[in-house]
Design a protein that fits this description.
This protein has six helices and seven strands; from the N terminus they run αββαββαβββααα. It is an alpha+beta fold.
């Protein structure tokens, strides 16, 4: 097995123009096995290291995207420094552009304004919102579909080109329903009302297609 992993890591990359590029480190960008190898590597570089050295700190990791929960700015700065040191030992670097300290206000932490108060993770935006609870509205760190995710959905619908679709309504439904069902099941787990604008936009596209097919013209 180790022999195959070594071959994957050392394999050349074939460019679109057919040329081969020699590689000396890392996994091939876009390679089918790259995600799996990176995930296994990060399990030992980060997950097990956190478990052994900072077992009281909660975190979430998806591939090389990581969210670490801290109770103060001082702790966040300390951990950022320690994580950077750990990565350097493993010949990795923290992305300075993507790595940020975020302050999310809640019922326990109502401090002064902070430069960064929200972050995106796995298609969601996490920020402070007044959220209905059994004890009334509470200020909590809540998740809702990110604007980048909404733009991605819009772009996929544009590429589908509803206006140019030449099938009937049943065929349209068969083509779009699996995609829409998947988006709703994933993005509407929390604060689904924040996605209403996206679905209204999509409904308008479907109405335009229906009316154009009937020869009525544009809405």
């Amino acid at each position: 097995m180790l022999m195959y992993i070594e071959r994957w890591l050392k394999s050349d990359v074939k460019r679109v123009d057919g040329t081969l590029e020699k590689r000396t480190q890392g996994t091939p960008q876009g390679g089918v096995i790259s995600g799996l190898l990176a995930n296994v590597f990060f399990h030992f570089v980060f997950d097990k290291w956190m478990e052994n050295t900072h077992s009281n700190i909660r975190f979430e990791r998806y591939s090389d995207d990581i969210v670490v929960h801290c109770i103060s700015e001082k702790q966040a700065l300390f951990l950022r420094h320690k994580i950077a040191e750990r990565f350097k030992q493993c010949k990795l670097e923290i992305s300075e552009q993507k790595t940020r300290i975020v302050y999310c206000r809640n019922e326990q932490h109502k401090g002064k304004k902070f430069p960064v108060n929200s972050f995106n993770f796995l298609g969601y935006t996490f920020k402070s919102r007044f959220t209905p609870t059994r004890n009334g509205l509470k200020l909590l760190t809540a998740a809702c579909m990110s604007e980048d995710a909404k733009n991605s959905v819009r772009e996929k619908i544009r590429k589908f080109s509803i206006r140019k679709f030449r099938g009937n309504i049943q065929q349209m439904s068969k083509a779009l329903n699996p995609k829409i069902r998947g988006w709703i099941n994933y993005y509407c787990k929390f604060h689904k009302w924040t996605t209403l604008g996206l679905w209204h936009w999509m409904n308008k596209k479907l109405i335009e297609w229906t009316m154009c097919n009937k020869g009525i013209g544009k809405v």
